[in-house]
Amino acid sequence: MSSPHGSIDFEKLYSVVRWVEDLHTAEGKSRFEKSIEVFKKIMEHSWVKELIERKRSVTVLDICGGTGIGGIALTKILQDLGVKVDLPYRKRS
After folding, report:
1. How far is it, in rounded angstroms, from Cα 46 to Cα 51?
2. 4-21: per-residue pLDDT in tens?
3. How far is 39 from 42, CA to CA, in rounded Å?
4. Alpha carbon distance 40, 42 (integer Å)
5. pTM of whole model > 0.70?
6. Alpha carbon distance 90, 8 (integer Å)
7. 5-14 in b/e burial notation, b at 16+ Cβ within 10 A?
8. On the chain, which terminus has fewer CB atoms closer than 10 Å, C or N?
9. Helical (H) or strand (E) element with 46
10. Which DSSP letter does residue 25 get?
11. Contacts for 33 with CB less than 8 Å, ≥ 6 apart
């Protein structure tokens, strides 16, 4: 279950155990939708609006964010605003 670097292969783990952010479950979908609403409110702030208007391309780096649902939600909101977003994902082999 560990990679050569000693980390857990989460894809294998999640195939056995569901986690709360699993978008295939009602709870996971609800948590994702709540994250979307939070980021929508953040995007309404004048400072954030100004920042986003100046940056038409951004990288969202979700470090130690658990399953990454926040990074995915933020990416969706930014893309809906017409911002080109890079959400790096490193799949472990």
Report:
1. 9
2. 545 556 667 667 766 667
3. 5
4. 5
5. no
6. 14
7. eeeeeeeeee
8. C
9. helix 46-54
10. S
11. none
